[in-house]
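Hey team,

Filing this mostly as a record. A colleague (T.K.) asked me to run one chain through the structure pipeline before their review meeting, and I want the input and output archived in the tracker in case anyone asks later how it was produced. No errors, nothing strange. Just documentation.

Input sequence:
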Amino acid sequence: MAKKKKTTIRVKRYVYVTKTVVKKPKQDNPTTSTATSTNIGEFAGLTFAVKLKEDGSPKVLSPNDINQNISSNWAEHQIIGRKRPKSEFIGANSRTLSMTITVDYMLGYKPHTILHKLNKFCETGKVGKFKLGTHQIGSEWKITNLSEPFEKIWKNGQLTKASAELELTSYD
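Output structure:
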């Protein structure tokens, strides 16, 4: 049975009654999926996640060895009569980010599909946002270098495990 709740607002001597809020009782939905998912982040149209499918098998795609480099640009000016030069801040240099993404067929992803998406992103000059959890790292990034070591190949040339070593530069 639904519960009804009226909201009342009192302002000085007048009473205003606002709309009635009806709360429906919670019901178990039998169509709800039992699969669990934890998103790690996203970049280049890829969603990094650790999932447990309904059959209990894992599905994992995650970045490893993430390294961000931030640097600044300084100029030094020689001043007559002083032993040390005077430093002046010119501005920030472009940020760089490197990471490795391991794609394993046994963990639910097809290496050729993931590598093809990264190749296309790099070769067409696209830029994208890199997120870890709910935090956006930098503004936008471009892939400046992509290396793809093929680690395992099964019969008929089926690629079952590969890595994508990415180097990103901030797009300003």
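Quick notes for T.K.: The helical segments are 111-123. DSSP finds one helix and 13 strands in the chain.
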